[in-house]
Write a structure and sequence with these properties.
alpha/beta; Rossmann fold; five-stranded parallel sheet; globular
Length: 143
């Protein structure tokens, strides 16, 4: 993780599993993870299971030898939020839990690469912004 950039302000963030998994491959998702460590990170409790499923899927592959360690490192920086019920908003039910976590924790940004979740931007006037990893990095660079 070579890229580190700090903003002058501490943000409250929700980062979805899609971004965390994509961070393994580098690019903007990796930059989001590096930057987010210096902010407050929240996620619904389902995040842990989503990461475990990914590990199970690729475990036999030798391409990601330290994947569990990487995910555990990130999970140690995330406050998992228990959401009992989430309003049906997105096509993908798990996305609703990310929105609920963002609302419950009064975050500034929900960061996702998931097209379904990104399409929820215009559904309501949310008290937080839903941004792609690239848009979040651009915003941090400006602050």
């Amino acid at each position: 993780m070579k890229y580190l950039e700090k903003s002058s302000r501490k943000y409250k963030l929700v980062i979805d599993a899609n971004v965390i998994i994509s961070a393994v491959f580098g690019g903007y998702p990796e930059k989001v993870i590096q930057i987010s460590i210096s902010h407050e990170i929240f996620a619904p409790h389902i995040l842990k299971r989503e990461l475990e499923k990914f590990v199970e899927k690729v475990e036999s592959s030798k391409e990601f030898p330290r994947l569990k360690e990487f995910f555990n490192y990130i999970l140690n920086h995330i406050k998992l939020v228990i959401i009992d019920r989430a309003e049906k908003i997105s096509r993908d039910r798990s996305d609703d839990f990310y929105i609920a976590a963002a609302i419950n924790e009064k975050v500034d940004f929900l960061i996702t690469g998931d097209k379904d979740l990104l399409s929820c931007k215009g559904i309501r006037k949310w008290p937080f912004k839903i941004l792609s990893p690239k848009k979040f990095i651009e915003l941090i660079r400006k602050s």
